[in-house]
Amino acid sequence: MNVNGLTSKATPRPTPAATASTLRSLSSDAEFRPKFYARIGKRVFDVVGVLLLLPLVVPLILLFWMITRKDGGPGLFGHHRIGQNGTRFTCWKLRTMAVDAEEQLAQHLKNCPAARAEWDANFKLAIDPRVTPLGNFLRKSSLDELPQFLNVLRGDMSLVGPRPVVSDELALYGTQAALYLRCKPGLTGRWQISGRNNVSYAERVKMDVEYIQEMSLFRDLSIVLQTAFVVVKATGK
Protein backbone atom coordinates (compact mmCIF):
# COMPACT_ATOMS: atom_id res chain seq x y z
CA MET A 1 0.00 0.00 0.00
CA ASN A 2 1.33 3.42 -0.96
CA VAL A 3 -0.49 6.55 0.24
CA ASN A 4 0.99 10.05 0.24
CA GLY A 5 4.57 8.92 0.51
CA LEU A 6 3.91 6.00 2.86
CA THR A 7 4.21 2.33 2.08
CA SER A 8 3.17 -0.54 4.26
CA LYS A 9 4.02 -4.15 3.58
CA ALA A 10 4.29 -7.36 5.52
CA THR A 11 7.88 -8.59 5.16
CA PRO A 12 7.93 -11.99 3.38
CA ARG A 13 9.51 -14.81 5.37
CA PRO A 14 10.38 -18.38 4.48
CA THR A 15 8.21 -20.06 7.15
CA PRO A 16 4.46 -19.80 7.96
CA ALA A 17 3.40 -16.98 10.25
CA ALA A 18 2.18 -17.76 13.76
CA THR A 19 -1.55 -17.21 14.24
CA ALA A 20 -2.91 -14.41 16.40
CA SER A 21 -4.50 -16.91 18.79
CA THR A 22 -1.19 -18.73 19.23
CA LEU A 23 0.59 -15.47 20.02
CA ARG A 24 -2.03 -14.47 22.59
CA SER A 25 -1.78 -17.92 24.19
CA LEU A 26 1.99 -17.68 24.44
CA SER A 27 1.74 -14.23 26.01
CA SER A 28 -0.80 -15.27 28.64
CA ASP A 29 1.24 -18.32 29.64
CA ALA A 30 4.45 -16.36 30.34
CA GLU A 31 5.74 -16.42 33.89
CA PHE A 32 6.49 -12.73 34.20
CA ARG A 33 5.30 -10.43 36.97
CA PRO A 34 6.30 -6.88 36.02
CA LYS A 35 7.46 -4.48 38.69
CA PHE A 36 6.05 -0.97 39.13
CA TYR A 37 8.49 0.50 36.61
CA ALA A 38 7.53 -2.02 33.93
CA ARG A 39 3.79 -1.54 34.58
CA ILE A 40 3.60 2.26 34.91
CA GLY A 41 6.94 4.04 35.11
CA LYS A 42 8.19 2.82 31.74
CA ARG A 43 5.26 4.36 29.87
CA VAL A 44 5.84 7.67 31.65
CA PHE A 45 9.52 7.47 30.69
CA ASP A 46 8.56 6.82 27.05
CA VAL A 47 6.09 9.69 26.72
CA VAL A 48 8.30 12.24 28.47
CA GLY A 49 11.36 11.14 26.50
CA VAL A 50 9.58 11.33 23.13
CA LEU A 51 8.03 14.74 23.85
CA LEU A 52 11.45 16.12 24.81
CA LEU A 53 13.07 14.78 21.64
CA LEU A 54 10.31 15.53 19.09
CA PRO A 55 11.53 19.11 18.34
CA LEU A 56 14.81 17.56 17.15
CA VAL A 57 13.40 14.39 15.60
CA VAL A 58 10.50 15.78 13.52
CA PRO A 59 12.61 18.16 11.34
CA LEU A 60 15.04 15.32 10.60
CA ILE A 61 12.22 12.97 9.63
CA LEU A 62 10.73 15.58 7.28
CA LEU A 63 14.11 16.36 5.71
CA PHE A 64 15.01 12.74 4.94
CA TRP A 65 11.42 11.96 3.93
CA MET A 66 11.56 14.65 1.24
CA ILE A 67 14.99 13.53 -0.03
CA THR A 68 13.94 9.87 -0.11
CA ARG A 69 10.85 10.67 -2.20
CA LYS A 70 12.94 12.15 -5.03
CA ASP A 71 13.17 8.75 -6.75
CA GLY A 72 9.39 8.66 -7.06
CA GLY A 73 8.87 6.17 -4.27
CA PRO A 74 7.38 6.66 -0.80
CA GLY A 75 9.35 8.34 1.98
CA LEU A 76 8.36 5.93 4.74
CA PHE A 77 8.19 2.16 4.85
CA GLY A 78 5.81 0.35 7.17
CA HIS A 79 6.53 -3.26 8.05
CA HIS A 80 4.36 -5.47 10.24
CA ARG A 81 5.84 -6.51 13.59
CA ILE A 82 4.65 -8.36 16.69
CA GLY A 83 4.02 -6.21 19.74
CA GLN A 84 3.00 -6.73 23.35
CA ASN A 85 0.60 -9.64 23.91
CA GLY A 86 1.01 -10.73 20.29
CA THR A 87 -0.63 -7.61 18.82
CA ARG A 88 0.50 -6.84 15.28
CA PHE A 89 1.36 -3.23 14.47
CA THR A 90 2.94 -1.24 11.65
CA CYS A 91 6.51 -0.32 12.54
CA TRP A 92 7.63 2.74 10.55
CA LYS A 93 11.02 3.52 9.09
CA LEU A 94 12.45 5.92 6.55
CA ARG A 95 12.64 3.95 3.30
CA THR A 96 16.22 2.83 2.68
CA MET A 97 15.66 0.51 -0.28
CA ALA A 98 14.95 0.86 -3.97
CA VAL A 99 11.34 1.09 -5.09
CA ASP A 100 11.49 -2.45 -6.55
CA ALA A 101 13.21 -3.87 -3.46
CA GLU A 102 11.05 -7.01 -3.15
CA GLU A 103 11.70 -8.02 -6.75
CA GLN A 104 15.44 -7.40 -6.31
CA LEU A 105 15.51 -9.52 -3.15
CA ALA A 106 13.70 -12.45 -4.75
CA GLN A 107 16.04 -12.42 -7.74
CA HIS A 108 19.17 -12.07 -5.56
CA LEU A 109 18.20 -14.95 -3.27
CA LYS A 110 17.37 -17.10 -6.27
CA ASN A 111 20.75 -16.50 -7.92
CA CYS A 112 22.96 -16.55 -4.81
CA PRO A 113 22.78 -19.62 -2.52
CA ALA A 114 25.07 -17.96 0.05
CA ALA A 115 22.73 -14.99 0.32
CA ARG A 116 19.76 -17.37 0.61
CA ALA A 117 21.43 -19.15 3.54
CA GLU A 118 22.34 -15.84 5.20
CA TRP A 119 18.77 -14.55 4.83
CA ASP A 120 17.25 -17.75 6.24
CA ALA A 121 19.60 -17.63 9.25
CA ASN A 122 19.48 -13.92 10.14
CA PHE A 123 16.55 -12.35 8.23
CA LYS A 124 19.01 -9.79 6.83
CA LEU A 125 21.97 -9.49 4.44
CA ALA A 126 25.39 -8.01 5.22
CA ILE A 127 25.61 -6.80 1.61
CA ASP A 128 22.11 -5.93 0.48
CA PRO A 129 21.74 -4.88 -3.20
CA ARG A 130 18.35 -3.29 -2.47
CA VAL A 131 19.76 -0.51 -0.27
CA THR A 132 20.16 2.94 -1.86
CA PRO A 133 23.20 5.20 -1.20
CA LEU A 134 21.09 7.44 1.06
CA GLY A 135 19.59 4.36 2.65
CA ASN A 136 23.06 3.06 3.43
CA PHE A 137 23.84 6.29 5.33
CA LEU A 138 20.51 6.19 7.17
CA ARG A 139 21.10 2.59 8.22
CA LYS A 140 24.68 3.12 9.35
CA SER A 141 23.59 6.08 11.48
CA SER A 142 20.33 4.36 12.56
CA LEU A 143 18.47 7.50 11.45
CA ASP A 144 16.12 5.33 9.38
CA GLU A 145 14.43 4.36 12.66
CA LEU A 146 13.49 7.92 13.66
CA PRO A 147 9.81 7.47 12.63
CA GLN A 148 9.53 4.84 15.36
CA PHE A 149 9.33 7.70 17.85
CA LEU A 150 5.74 7.96 16.58
CA ASN A 151 5.25 4.26 17.33
CA VAL A 152 6.46 4.91 20.87
CA LEU A 153 4.10 7.85 21.29
CA ARG A 154 1.21 5.68 20.03
CA GLY A 155 2.07 3.00 22.56
CA ASP A 156 3.05 0.32 20.01
CA MET A 157 6.67 0.40 21.15
CA SER A 158 8.87 1.58 23.98
CA LEU A 159 12.04 3.68 23.79
CA VAL A 160 13.98 0.69 25.13
CA GLY A 161 13.07 -2.96 24.73
CA PRO A 162 13.61 -6.12 22.68
CA ARG A 163 14.12 -5.76 18.95
CA PRO A 164 10.80 -5.72 16.99
CA VAL A 165 10.32 -9.07 15.21
CA VAL A 166 8.00 -10.65 12.66
CA SER A 167 5.92 -13.61 13.82
CA ASP A 168 8.18 -16.20 12.17
CA GLU A 169 11.17 -14.99 14.17
CA LEU A 170 9.47 -15.91 17.43
CA ALA A 171 10.42 -19.54 16.76
CA LEU A 172 14.06 -18.48 17.23
CA TYR A 173 13.20 -17.38 20.78
CA GLY A 174 12.25 -20.94 21.67
CA THR A 175 10.83 -21.25 25.19
CA GLN A 176 11.46 -17.52 25.76
CA ALA A 177 8.96 -16.41 23.11
CA ALA A 178 6.22 -16.03 25.74
CA LEU A 179 8.46 -13.76 27.79
CA TYR A 180 9.19 -11.62 24.73
CA LEU A 181 5.47 -11.10 24.15
CA ARG A 182 4.90 -9.71 27.62
CA CYS A 183 6.58 -6.38 26.87
CA LYS A 184 6.70 -3.81 24.09
CA PRO A 185 9.50 -3.96 21.52
CA GLY A 186 11.96 -1.09 21.73
CA LEU A 187 13.30 1.59 19.43
CA THR A 188 16.67 0.69 20.93
CA GLY A 189 17.95 -2.01 23.24
CA ARG A 190 20.93 -4.04 24.38
CA TRP A 191 21.45 -5.57 20.94
CA GLN A 192 21.81 -2.15 19.31
CA ILE A 193 24.55 -1.06 21.71
CA SER A 194 26.41 -4.39 21.93
CA GLY A 195 28.03 -4.82 18.54
CA ARG A 196 24.74 -5.28 16.68
CA ASN A 197 26.32 -6.39 13.41
CA ASN A 198 28.56 -8.97 15.06
CA VAL A 199 25.96 -10.50 17.39
CA SER A 200 24.38 -13.85 16.53
CA TYR A 201 20.62 -14.30 16.75
CA ALA A 202 21.04 -16.59 19.77
CA GLU A 203 23.06 -13.90 21.56
CA ARG A 204 20.43 -11.33 20.65
CA VAL A 205 17.69 -13.50 22.18
CA LYS A 206 19.75 -13.88 25.35
CA MET A 207 20.20 -10.10 25.58
CA ASP A 208 16.47 -9.52 25.13
CA VAL A 209 15.56 -12.03 27.82
CA GLU A 210 18.09 -10.59 30.29
CA TYR A 211 16.80 -7.08 29.61
CA ILE A 212 13.18 -8.06 30.27
CA GLN A 213 14.11 -9.80 33.51
CA GLU A 214 16.27 -6.91 34.75
CA MET A 215 14.25 -3.95 33.39
CA SER A 216 14.68 -0.71 35.36
CA LEU A 217 14.74 3.07 34.92
CA PHE A 218 18.50 3.19 35.43
CA ARG A 219 19.07 0.50 32.79
CA ASP A 220 16.82 2.30 30.28
CA LEU A 221 18.59 5.61 30.83
CA SER A 222 21.95 3.90 30.38
CA ILE A 223 20.87 2.23 27.10
CA VAL A 224 19.45 5.49 25.71
CA LEU A 225 22.72 7.33 26.44
CA GLN A 226 24.81 4.54 24.91
CA THR A 227 22.56 4.55 21.85
CA ALA A 228 23.44 8.20 21.24
CA PHE A 229 27.13 7.23 21.00
CA VAL A 230 26.30 4.34 18.63
CA VAL A 231 24.40 6.73 16.33
CA VAL A 232 27.35 9.14 16.26
CA LYS A 233 29.77 6.28 15.47
CA ALA A 234 27.42 5.04 12.68
CA THR A 235 27.96 1.32 13.24
CA GLY A 236 24.60 0.12 11.93
CA LYS A 237 23.66 -1.76 8.76
Series of H and E elements: EEHHEEHHHHEHEHHH
Q: Biggest sheet: strands, sense, closure?
A: 4 strands, mixed
The tally of helices reads: 10
Strands of the widest sheet, in order across it, are: 1-2-3-4
What's the total number of strands?
6
Structure classification: alpha/beta
Strand content: 5-15%
Radius of gyration: 17 Å
As residue ranges, the low-confidence spans are 10-19, 26-30
As a percent range, the share of helical residues equals 40-55%
Ends apart, CA distance between termini: 25 Å
Number of domains: 1
Shape: globular
How would you classify the quaternary structure? single chain
Structure description:
By secondary structure, the chain is α/β, with parallel strands linked by helices. It has one domain (2-96, 131-233). Helix content is 50%, strand content 11%. α2 (36-68) packs antiparallel against α6 (148-154) and α3 (101-111) packs across α4. It starts with a strand and ends with a helix.
